## 1
Amino acid sequence: MPEPGTMLTRRALLKTATAAGLAGLGAATVGRLAGFAAASPDPLLLQTASIQAQLMDGAPTKNVLTYGKSGPPPVIRMKKGEAFAARLINGIDDPTTIHWHGIRVPNRMDGVPFLVQPYVYQGDHFDYAFTPPDAGTFWYHPHCNTLEQMGHGLTGVIVVENPHDPAFDAEVVLNLRDWRLGDDGQFIQQFRPRDAAKTGTFGTVRTANWLDQPQFDAPAGGLVRLRTAITDVTRIYAFSVDGAEVAVIALDGNPVPQRFAPDALLLGPGQRLDLAIRMPDQEGAIVSLRDVRGTKPKILATLRSVGTSLKRDLRDLAPLPPNPVAEADLADARHIALALSATAENVPADGICGSLGYSFWAINKVPWPGDTPDPTAPLAELKLGQSYIIDMENLTPHSHPIHLHGMSFKLLSSSKRAVSPLISDTYLIQPDEKVQLGFVADNPGDWLLHCHIIEHQKTGMTSYLRVM
Ligand code: C2O
Ligand code: CU
């Protein structure tokens, strides 16, 4: 059950921050481990487990996966520029890893099996340690048998705090995702091949923080920072907010150049949305975050005004400090052509890390096998320190949230619309769209580039860039 009435004040946030966001979770499986390597902070323990969870009315769902003992994966709090460490302990009968989506980590911490690290088998562990260079909203998930592991629950949100962020009166973190459950509340087949060849297979039960439409109390007239991550394996959202003045302040972890209202703003799997919401003055007033895409709009979560109005003004909110992402030198940039297409024929592809046995999609005409022990050659070899422009073209009739590991890019242009120079790690490319993404190849290693609709990723739309 949701905990309506949870007042997320700044004080509560500070408390949560000191407890590393672990309140209520078993100390044995998610906690701090003493005596880790000197000079690193105590690692956060993230132990995968198979649990039961109440995801809809009726019987609890069996074989739900999480980090910890019960409930959703914890919101992990890190601080920009401060060392972070975590020990992944694998408690499930399936090899796993953790990828820190959007965080510019050193390559060997990136969590991609075979490319950068070995599998973590049941009973084994792997130590992650890095210093997040950027503040913002990020998330974490396995990069192994991802459709199954993420589909069953292994997706969590990361908040990287910046002490120089403007002060809010409250913060709410939302992990948006669906579940493929039957009427009996149990998992059904995770995908249908005919859907994988189109938009991907949608879940049947939609949740925010594993709850149906949770409600949060927030101070009347106060400013709320609503951090949202789409951790679903398939669904693209169109966000709108009713009942309050609201502005988009960050996308995909990075402050937006100019604030705007989220008027059916389209974001895909892997993307994050940070909103500043000015709560209504009147006690009891409700603000709702909706997904208005498709024929069945859905209220995702609501906020309720409580107390006497703080009378804050959205216009007083200072800008978020920018993240230290290197600026590409466009005059000197080299180009990487990237064409996304459907494959002419479906050749079953083999792979041992959860490949789905089909290939429907291709990058530059190659249907990539996905995570395999012997990945094919990189899509391109990049020179460390050199500026690049990805010329990406979508030749398919579907949208694809294309995610680059390890480096952030800037949106330079689109053939479809006027764009603002957003900095991001995931771009939701529309059918027939051509875009240019500029970045500096400043992080050495092998970096995946893939569609974050996991069925697309696993049936051909995965590749990688080598920076050396
Ligand atoms: Cu969310 Cu390959 O990543
Ligand atoms: Cu796709």
## 2
Amino acid sequence: MPVEEIKKLQDEKLVRQVKYVYDNVKYYRDLMDKKGVKPEDIKGTEDLHKLPFLKKDDLREAYPYGLLGTDIKNCVRIHSTSGTTGKRVVAFYTQHDVDMWEDCCARAIVAAGGSSDDVCQVCYGYGLFTGGAGLHGGSHKVGCLTLPMSSGNTDRQIQFMMDLNSTFLCCTPSYAAYLGESLKEKGYKPEDNKLRAGIFGAEPWTEEMRRDIEKALGIKAYDIYGLTEISGPGVAFECEEQKGMHINEDHFIAEIIDPETGEPLPIGTKGELVFTSLDKEGFPMLRYRTRDICVLSREKCSCGRTFLKMTKPMGRSDDMMIIRGVNVFPSQIETVLLKQGYAPNYQIILDRVNNSDTFDINVEMNPDDFPDSPKAITSKEKKLQDAMKAMLGINPKIHLVAPKTIERSEGKAVRIIDKRKRYGITT
Ligand code: DLL
């Protein structure tokens, strides 16, 4: 579609969607009223900046139903991702929303060269996480033979990949790298598998990692971006050019803002990505601040697609970490520590070993609750680890350390030591 037509479509959809949200979502109507904006003030995309932002904190405040755009009986699905504290983000989908989302994922598969001739192995997690369901739905829409593997069980992944001749692989880039290593360990060469392409996202990865994965698996590796609040994977996807991801602009408007001031920035400037969903019914987000930092570009793409492109996220404007594909906030860790009777004196150490993230948390013991035997310490560590697993969904290694041994900083506490930075991983 020519860019002018995309703009016209967005203008029309935006006007309709703002009215829909104003009429149906009291929480957002209150935000608009507070800012003195009425639906009639929004005549097209040039008026977008007049609308208030939505942030992760709003989602927590409105949890669980406060941002629903329609009666709950019209919704057919939920998915969920981490919140900043105990409350997770819960997103609702009508059948129309699921269809639109699956179309977006289907586009990603087609852009990577997929068709109904392909066997698509989906090893993103199935469940509350959007990765499995999204790529699964997209794969069906394309007509691929879909292998709903979910994550883990590497031996079975490899057996099915080889026996059922998988041609497409959908998983996190770190799991793709791990599969590559595991295949090698089992004595397979890259040319022994039938894989042609992989669609990898949900966590930051680098061009070096892309080359490694392509070499190890003998495939083309494509990036895919998305977030639960806006639907899930497929908000943006890479094409054959493998240089930036096309944003599905018929469904989402992308803006870049200054993360400090909230002011919109021109295309080509680095800043925080903000999305407006144009036709979602269940969980319609207007000007949702993703906290992902990137650059947008309208340069002509050799694939012929006219959709705006985004670079890989280059970092975040908040303290969210992505560990083994799972979003983790330090505030969640603090919530657990306080509930378990610890002071919030802790340090998170992240590293990457054999393409897999390691996640350690050093926690200071309380001076008045100092276990006197190694066995008692181990048992306390285990208890804390279980509580962390319940909150975060992944297992950190807990190390209880003596009181006052974690270095105090004069300014902001240094809570996160991310050694993955040396591999270019920025969140
Ligand atoms: O991670 C959706 C997804 C699933 C995307 C499968 C791609 C593939 P959330 O759990 O809500 O949703 O996490 C969203 O993950 O704001 C980014 O910070 C990060 N992220 C997602 N895709 C990429 C990517 C899914 N390709 C958050 N590169 C987003 C870097 C990514 N970071």
